[in-house]
């Protein structure tokens, strides 16, 4: 593998890891929001 190919592969792996953590973070925030939504709605519409 050439040095340029290795750099490209490293960038692809780096992008993949960032994308994965981004997706996990969004899923976690969405999950917590949906989990707490009934309590928040009850709090606002008391």
SSE arrangement:
Blueprint: H1 3-44
Task: Please provide a brief summary of the model.
The chain has 46 residues and is mainly alpha-helical.
Report the biggest beta sheet as strand number plus sense, adding barrel if it closes.
Answer: none
| Estimated share of beta-strand residues | under 5%
Give the H and E element order: H
The average pLDDT score comes to 88
As residue ranges, the low-confidence spans are: none
Q: Whole-Å distance between the termini?
A: 65 Å
Binned, the helix content reads over 70%
By secondary-structure content and strand pairing, the structural class works out as mainly alpha
By DSSP (H or I, 4+ residues per run), the number of helices equals 1
Q: What's the count of strands? A: 0
Please state the overall shape, judged from the principal axes of the Cα atoms: rod-shaped
Radius of gyration: 20 Å
Keywords: Membrane, Transmembrane, Transmembrane helix
Transmembrane segments: 15-37
How would you describe what is shown here?
The protein is 91% helix and 0% strand. It is mostly helical and 46 residues long. The longest helix is centred in the middle third of the chain and has 42 residues, at 3-44. It starts with a helix and ends with a helix.
What would the keywords be for this entry?
membrane, mainly alpha, single chain, transmembrane helix, 46 residues, transmembrane
